[in-house]
Structure formats: C-alpha cells, structure tokens
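User: Predict the structure for this protein chain, please.
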Amino acid sequence: MDSIDWDLFSSFAGLLCLASTSIFAGAHGSLPTPKKSGKGTTKSLLYAEDDEDDSEDIPDRLSSGDAWMFPIAGSVALFGMYVIVKYFGKEWINWLLSWYFSIAGVGSVWKSATSLTRLIVGFARWKKFDRNRVLILKGPRELLSVSLRTPTIMLFPLALIPSVLYNMSEVNHKSALLTDILALSFSHNALSLLKIDSFKTGCILLSGLFFYDIYWVFGTEVMLTVATSLDVPIKLLWPKSLAFASERGYTMLGLGDIVIPGTFIALALRYDHARSLTSASSSASSKGTFSKPYFCATLTAYVAGLVTTMAVMHVFGKAQPALLYLSPACILAFLATALARGEFVDAWKWVDDPEQPQTDGAQKDAGTLRESLGESHASLLQNGSTGGHAGDEMGGGEEVVEQIDGGAAADAKLKKRKSKKRV
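Assistant: Here is the predicted structure, written as structure tokens:
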C-alpha cells in the first residue's frame, strides 16, 4: 500500500519498543532480592554488611490512601506548571528543570548502568569484585557509610556523560538520544523503587488517573501546553523517519504513561513470584524461571492499549490521553486472568509484603515444633514414663521453643538494623 506512511509507522514501532522494554526491565528490577540465611555468624563492624547486595532497603509501598491522592496532587502540580509557563515564560523554568534533571540523571544513569552490568556479568561473579567501603564514625554512632564495588566506581564517569552533554546543548535543540537515555533510566529506577501494595490500590490508581488524563487533555489546554513547552527528559522521543532524521519532528510518549501502568504490571510480576514461592515449583522460582501469567497478560494488554492509542491519534490527527486506553486495558487483563484461573479472591486480598512469607514460615516452623513436642510428651505419658521424665522432656521443649522465638527476635532486630537508610 503506497498510502502507508512508513516513516510514521517506524516512529510508532520504535516508541512502542522503548516503552515495553522499559517496563519489562523495571518490573524485573522490582522483584525482591533472594536473602541468604545466616547461621549465627559473627562479623566485625567493617564486614557487618557484607551481604548488602542481597538485602537492599525495603521501600514503602503505596497504599490505597496514597492512590486516591495521586490525581489531586498531579492536578495541582500540572496546573501550577501551566500558570508558570503561561504568565512567566518557559525559558527560565526550562533552564532550572534542565539543571535539576541533569543532576538527578547522573545518579539515575549510574544506578541503571550498575544494574545492567550486574545482570551481564552474573550475580555470582559480581560478588567476587572487591568492595570499597568508606565508614565515618563519631564514637559508636555511624555518620556516613558508602560501600561500592569496583565496577560501580568505574561506571561513575560514564554516568556523567549524558547529563553533561544534555545540559550543554541548546535549550530548544536537546538531543533526542540523550533525552531517551535519561528518561529510560528515570523510568527503570521509578519502576524498581515505586511499588504499590495490592491490586486494589493499583485499580484505584489507574482509575483515578484515567479520569485525570481525560479531563486535562480533552477538557482544557493545560496538559498539551505544559507537555509542548517543557524541554526536559521526562518523555520518550522517536524521530518520524526511517533514517532517524529530525525534519518531521518526533513522536512523544510521557514517562507517566510508562511508569503508572508499569507499577501495576510490576505488581503483577511480584504476585506471580509470590505464588511461585508457595507452590511446589519454589525451587525453580529461585532461578527466575517461575510462570508469569499475570505479568504476561498485563504487559500484553499494555502493548495493545498503546497500539490503540497510536492508531486513534493517527486517524484523528490529535493528541490522545494514553491512560484513556492503558488503564482499562491493564485492569481488564488482570481481572480476566484472575477470573479465568479461579484466583480472583486470593489475588484481590493479596498484599505485597516482602517480610510476610518469612514471618509466616517462622511461625509455621515454631508451631510444628511445638506440636511435635506436645505429641512426644503425650506419648511418654501413655507409655508409663515417670512424671520426672515427662517434666524433663517438656522443660527441654520449652527451652528449644524459647531459642526459636529468640532467634526470630534477633532476625527482626537485624532487619531493622539493615533497613537503616544508607548514604
């Protein structure tokens, strides 16, 4: 067909690949890191956090109360930005935001590059690299603790390059490649760190932003004005040309249309992971080979919703609120998968608590031991054992149970100590 605009088609395809790849990587980055079981080893202060790569700080989850506030907070921020652009001009705000995102981009690109390097070399080999640690103490109190492996330090100069080049370029002629590098790193880290606690919260978040996007795009000029005025790396760009020429401009997708649905898709992946830990195939799940029905369904729905957005935008020749199509697609994909598998009630009640499985397991182990000790005591009484024997047996049992409970308390204290925020 001669009427097909292949330049525009390639632009849509490139943008779709960037968005879906970003969500795929960010969702897998949000999976909990496997914990090593410590067997009572004692470490010195300098090596007390030798397993830092295994136990990262646990970020707070977004609750349903937080989800209700997202459209309100987003509306206030968006309208405030619109007022600044309309009445004070966009030059100085672009200059200020360029500096802000350039500085933030250094840390974001650095963290993403470190994660990519760790994935390429493998976790086992990564642990073999030297750890370089700086520790500043004031008496017994820790003031500053920085612990970095050698490849992480070597990646820092490379992480500076995109931000430096982006900030040195002209305000109205920012490189699309540099913009995409910074935006993809922001997206990856946001999906890895910004986590919602349940599918109920996810549905509230997507539903609220569904109406938010419709109102500000179709009801006012605010969204379009702000999106086209700000030249900062909070969007993905792809040139409308097979030769990557910039004469026809670029197709654009805001990071909000990636991160917001992406948090829901990442939650679906974590639910698949949690299901695998409680199934008979838990040994396979530790290798990352667990089945991912909810993740695949929601990611496929996201791709279909984004294709629909682009098709409608092309047909009507007008910008579209992507969440108008992405939010229902992700929610319906989750509901259809849960209902088809007969797991809707369990999925809806599930809460993403990384510490819950271990706590439940410890409680089950302690309960099992108590039951076995009780059965042993009953058996001794039935066999005519003396009261002294029975008393000795139960006394030993209580001591063992106390040791287990004490070990659980020690684990809880260790978790508190490790969850302390590091610089």
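The chain has 15 helices and six strands.
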